[in-house]
Design a protein that fits this description.
Elements (H helix, E strand, L loop, with lengths): L26 H11 L3 E2 L4 E3 L6 E3 L5 H14 L7 H8 L8 H17 L11 H11 L3 H15 L5 H4 L23
Helix pairs in contact: 2-3, 3-6, 4-5
Length: about 190
Amino acid sequence: MKHSRAKRPDIRNPIRSPGPELAGLTRRALLQRAFAAGALTVVGAGFIAAPNAAWALEVTTIKPEQMAALVQMARDIYPHDRIADAFYAVAVKGYDSADQKALVDEGVAALNAAAQAQGHADYVSIGWEEDRVKVLQAIETTPFFQTVRAGLVTGLYNQKDIWPLFGYEGESFSQGGYIERGFDDIDWL
């Protein structure tokens, strides 16, 4: 994943416009707190921090809570223990747009309503994957679920940085095909 220097957050600068409970915290300290909490942390307007302090995501159109739900939903739909949440965040970042806002507003509301029907505060607060999957099954026929699930196929698996985790070396046409390149060297099949 490539970032330009201009868009990369400077973790040495304090967070702008913090709430009273975050006044004076640096981004590094904030991310360390997120790690200690053990879950995606929604902080202020438009900022989500990861539990492992390895990434953060800024949202502009949808609410940070909605993006946190999308990231968790992506991980629950296509669970891979060896893939970091940052890759799931990249896969759903496209839903932070004006043309997707209504779909996300309604979809996350339905997701949280399904979680509440099963006795939880909201989808992201559900601790067990098995319980989150039950919530997803309750909304799996909705256009929201189908759109997110279908978008994840390319949004997640087209990220070249995760291909080595699956043993995929990429396309072969530009390198003369697979026959002379060890096409059968994948040991996990």
